[in-house]
Amino acid sequence: MKHLIIIGAGGMGRSVYWVAIGCHGYGETFDVKGFIDDDLTSQDGYEGYPPLLGTIDSYQIEEDDVFHCSIGSVKTKFAICEKLKSRGAKFLTLIHKTAVIHPHTTFGDGCFVGEYAIVGTEATIGENCLIQQYSIISHDCRIGDYVRVDTHAVIIGGVELKDRATVHTGAVVSHKVVVGEDAVVAACSFVIKKVKPGTTVCGNPAIRLDY
Ligand SMILES: CC(C)(COP(=O)(O)OP(=O)(O)OC[C@H]1O[C@@H](n2cnc3c(N)ncnc32)[C@H](O)[C@@H]1OP(=O)(O)O)[C@@H](O)C(=O)NCCC(=O)NCCS
After folding, report:
1. Nearest CA to ligand 1 atom 5
2. Among protein residues, the one whose CA lies closest to atom 20 of ligand 1
3. pTM (whole model) above 0.90
4. CATH of the domain at 147
């Protein structure tokens, strides 16, 4: 039996805990050991959760530990996970029992698939991706590492979301569009053409947001 440690004990971390105990494998292949967070007061005022085990850097990794990162910021998540990986940490993919995963899909380690999300056939998902509740990744999509897809977003067939891309709540990315590394799609946008790496697009049709 593996013991899951959730990185981040804030609101998203608490949500990941409730999803984790409704995931395939819970109680059979893994249980939840606790949280690690640099804010040692992050659990104050909350009851009914596993313990806060310490800060991220001070936690001593044990043999059967596996990790899952709840941090929403893709940049911060990437930095923390890569640091833990260099210390030997292994990451666990959590797929909620209500999610629909078609055959012939592949997932890297450390991914999250929330309640009622759908991942279509022949989709490939990299490591440490966040696929939130009710989102859809359609057939033949290629999703890189540390990609974030928020609730009710729809990624249509054949789309490519490169490493660390973010698609926010309710956005739609059209057929075969490529969203570049570190790019951001604003909530409720409709993306019909390539998004350059590191840029943010918004609106319908989505255009570049110049800061
Ligand atoms: C992309 C995003 C991060 C940009 O946020 P921001 O950098 O704070 O940008 P601002 O709110 O200052 O907006 C900048 C401009 O873009 C426009 N804009 C921002 N988001 C937009 C959107 N989704 N659709 C259309 N226009 C948008 C604003 O109206 C503003 O225009 P203006 O300069 O003419 O006034 C934000 O819009 C967004 O989508 N947040 C995600 C929310 C979400 O889904 N969270 C998930 C929680 S689980």
Report:
1. 186
2. 186
3. yes
4. 2.160.10.10
